[in-house]
Amino acid sequence: MKVALRAGLLGVVFIAANLFLASSAHGQPFVPPRPRPSPGNGFLYQPEKGFFWDPSVIYANNQYYMFSMYGGESVWLAISQDGVHWKDYGVVLKSEGFKNNRVWKQYVSKVGDRYIMDYGAFTDQGTNNNLLRFYESKDLIHWTYLYEVPIDPGLYLAGGRWDHMFTVPRNESNPAEGYVGYMVADPIDHGGFGMMESPDGIHYHPVKAPEIAADFQVPTLEVGGIKKFGDKYYLLGGNANHFGFSGYGVYTYVADSLNGPFHPDMAAYRLTGTSGIDGNTYVHILTAFVQGSPDNLVSDPFSFNSTYGTDGQGTWFLPMRQAVVDSAGHLRLAYWKQNDLAKGDVVKVDQAQRTVVYPPGQTDSNPIIRVASTDDSLILQTDKVWRPFPWLDARSSRKAVVVLNQSFDLDKGLIVEGHIKAHTLNPRTSDSRKTYAGFYIEGVEKGPGTAIMLEVGEPQWRESEIGTLRLDTTFHFEALDVTGSNSATVTGLNNDKDHTFRLWIRGGQVELYIDDLLMQSFFFLRPSGRIGFISQESEAQFSQLKFYQMNFSNPK
Q1: pLDDT tens, 409-462?
Q2: Interatomic CA distance for residues 117 and 124, integer angstroms
């Protein structure tokens, strides 16, 4: 579809815990190829050396511990006191002495005065992912092997998945009532996930999987945990090629009880993920609840391993988000205020120093679009009718792109905050004249840039897109990702409403929040260093603009 950027899976690192989904039904394990090296920057964290995958986080001892797959047979640990700036600790567990020492995704939970880790494993070389191995620790550093639990063929497919398990007490205020766990598994009679029970939070045994009340086929789901909000339980499950999204996504299931039945939250079903229309399946990986956090946080990894045309490399741990339930009962991801700690020095920017890069032919004496600016704001308005310049098609939608002349060091990272407001010039528009406002990252050496196109309209109908943008005598936008219906993330802007925004840019990664709710995390093409603003069929106002350099660096 997008031939120039279509991502093959030749560079994928440790995608075993994800790509195995495609082959597990036939009992053939996926063996991931080695990834490309990771010399670039991004946010927030990746190890100084080596390759990690699928991290999960627990809060303990007044700090955050991030555990992840590492090197195929090890568990890696990074530690953060503030949840934003991370430091390598190193390998804390190396699988040894088994017929197959491969380590897949792990979860860690606190049980009394100890911590319990489980991870997906294999009985032998060439077998399917068919074991859960358990370890315990008193300090989260030194781990002792406990036991392993194989697939129960009376309840689950013997040739299916059997992987990481997220555990919680049945009653937070009285753990003596026992514990439950939700793991990656293939129930015999339906899709979804598996379940185990434990009287003490240490020794688990399989039980029948909870029912899922859905009017579509539910695939095998990688479990991102479960959490209670109010009187409802919200469970996260991830997969690729599901519900019309070919990209990996994480989906929300809701229940009144830990035992189910669970039902998909259709209005906000996809909590996070990508549409995959560019052929790139694994940009996002499994979003998971953070165990023990004083805030309701989720972790979310980001991968460049099948992405090309960008400066980004390897896998990155994104800023943690706050899980919130809105007034309608839908789970969404919000900006965590602690992430303000990533802001460094204020960057002074003169909004008056800007260039109209589209449409071509703009001059002060003969303007095609209206551009106005103050010290901290910029307004773009297209003409009501394109005038008959030879290079402009009067039948096309009217668009404007303005870039700031200042060049930013996007390898060090930039945070832009402000307000965005769009007024549509066509309240009764057709698809060919939709209204958008958005952001632009200029490409290097006249190459394609990256545009975020936020549609202006009713939330239930609008779609917003991220993609490549080539500017010459035409405005050639090619969408690589679409966010629309059935998504919990922001789908666009309300007409004439003043919204706030937060835009993070660094090393090939871009992340956008609107009104402190996540819109998307995606990649951008190699940049020139200039950023800009977009208007289509609208008067777009960008005000109260503030620019910050990011204040952290990768430990290289």
Answers
A1: 999 999 999 999 999 987 765 555 789 999 999 999 889 999 999 999 998 889
A2: 21
For the chain, how far is it from start to end, CA to CA, in angstroms? Answer: 36
Omega before 155 cis (within 30°)?
no
Q: Residue 484 corresponds to which tokens in the numbers above?
A: 């629309």
**Strand ranges (E), 472-537:** 475-483, 492-493, 499-506, 509-514, 517-523, 527-536
**Tens digits of residue pLDDT in 295-336:** 999 999 999 987 888 888 899 999 999 999 999 999 999 999
One-letter amino acid of 556: K
Q: Is 41 exposed, middle or buried (0-12, 13-18, 19+ CB in 10 A)?
A: buried
Find out whether 155 and 172 touch, Cβ atoms under 8 Å: no
From the list 473, 428, 451, 445, the residue with the least C-alpha distance to 529 is 445
Q: Which residues pair with 245 in a beta bridge?
A: 242
- The amino acid present at 358, given as its one-letter code, is Y
Question: Measured between alpha carbons, how far is 301 from 51 in angstroms, rounded to an integer?
Answer: 13
Structure tokens at 384: 């009501």
Other beta carbons less than 10 A from residue 333's beta carbon? 26
Instruction: Annotate 195-253 with DSSP letters as a single string.
Output: EEEESSSSS-EEEPPPPB--SS---B-EEEEEEEETTEEEEEEEESSBTTB-S-EEEEE
In single-letter form, the type of residue at position 542 comes to F
CA 417, chain centre distance (Å): 20
Residue 398 has what DSSP assignment? P
Write out the E strands in 138-187: 144-150, 162-169, 179-185
pTM above 0.85, yes or no: yes
